[in-house]
Amino acid sequence: MVPGRSRFSSAILLILLASQGLAPSRAIAQRPPGPGVAAPDASAPEATASQPGNASSSSAPRLPNTFPPDPLPFQRGNPATPGTEWYVSLWKMLFVIGAFLGWVTLAKWVSNDARGLKVRPVFWNTLVFACGFVALLLFLTLASYGAGFFMAVLGLGVPVGAYINERNQRVPESGKVLTPRHIKRVTQRFLARFGIHLGGGDRTEDATGPNIIFIGKTRTGKIDSTTSKQVENSKGYMAAKELVYDAILRRATDIHLEPKESELSVRLRIDGVMYPTEPFDRAVGDAIVNITKVLSAMDITERRRSQDGGFGAQMEGRDIDFRVASQGTREGEKLVIRILDQANSVSNVAQLGMRKKLMQQIKDVTHEPHGMFICCGPTGAGKSTTLYACLNEIDSLQRNIITIEDPVEYKMENVTQIEINTKADQTFAGSLRSVLRQDPDVVMVGEIRDGETARIACQAANTGHMVFSTVHANDTITAVLRLIDLEVDPSILASSITGILGQRLARRLCPECKESYKPNPEFVKKAGLPVNKIETFCRPPKESANCANCGDLGYKGRVGVFEFLDIGERIQDLIRDSAAVSAIRAEARKNGMLSMKEEGLRLVIHGVTSMDELQRVVRK
Known about the structure:
The protein is α/β, with parallel strands linked by helices. It is 40% helix and 18% strand. The protein is built from 22 helices and 16 strands.
């Protein structure tokens, strides 16, 4: 064999053996003797000295044509022998992965919570992400494991702690996190899952949750104490109490429970606008839905067909009613809870926020001996609230007031309130026909939906009764056309109707944090306002003002934007002749009617609401 080729083959063999983690032995590493070369003596001391790891290998003489010994043994991968170092510590790597997942969970919670509470979500999302990313890099690159762990905790804890401090200042006591009360409550719940109950048998507020008591009701609206006790020990009962309690404190009118693939999202309607809040995991969310359905006397086994019901609650010495509606969806069962809080109701016309002249016109119509007063607008515009305020202006002891509603939203003293039931064939038209035989002075019909109800209402107005009702229409003029479309004779309609009030609800600017600005003169001119007399408008703060009064929403409460059509003799003639809309509107303008946009601009000028809010609720 050629000596050069033999040396090359030995080198290849050595590399292959080294790649398998085997230390080369002297016998393998030694080149076979070529022709004319004497073989080395196997008993020579070099054979022992050339073994890897031998202490004398560095000083022993090396034979000719042999490779030098390997001073460090080669090991490939994580060795299984004890006492040797790994490339990475598996336990520390698991901790790094856990810290990363913890960072992702915290960032997700901060994002959802900040968006739901409107606590500078962009700022906090950016800060938590940036600090967590830097902390993770330092954790992976610092030589000291302890120093890396400290930097990771510092990078994650400081921004999250700062966010919790800010969000806790804007939520009620029951909604604060990482407080002693919250930590105690979470600990009690966790231990209760394993049958460990702390605090003995005392039913303290920490153990029972928020100060709210659910009251179950039957299908007919009667109190059912058995269902209330039935759900007290159910899973998710505490979460349901906290959800409803927090929604009431935040002045929400509706709670939307919407199923997703892995969670139950929650949205609250506050001042007419939807705000997302912290979701529930799917197991707890389904338990909350079942608890609500049990309290409302609904079938918990039926998840596809739509159902409706209601329940009650006692909170801080007042009674609150809830109206529940369910609907099956692709992801599961959606639930909407309407909150009917008597404390938020309007007791008289003066609280509606009308200008003095308009308020006096409404009061005059309310005290008419007969006629029909119509309130129009889309769903959620406050039509029922306005009618309730008008009824409160009437002496219920001297006049017989009967209401027909679907359902009864607010209870009134000395007023006969009837709730229709379409399943029992009790409709608006049938109930109104029956009510007219009860010697009423004032009748309120919750909504005119069909021609029969419209015709009976007009006949009642022409026979000495004062009728209050609502119609879904965009403005006052289209409300007249809507009644005519329901096949009401124009001549009967013209003689029966007294006035029509169109309305919207706009959010009030928060007086604590609203800011003034100089509007664009071209915009002011386009709105039909005098440029030289308009100096400033008001709007919500562009940046977070940390306002505790409104929860940093920029708005608190709502105000009505109205349009009143007084039916005079001239307009009666136009309605009787089925005149065009433009003709009726022109005559109403001659009588001093202001459109909803003009009424809204008055509120903007006085700083009650913003121009953006007015454009949101009034399209023209």
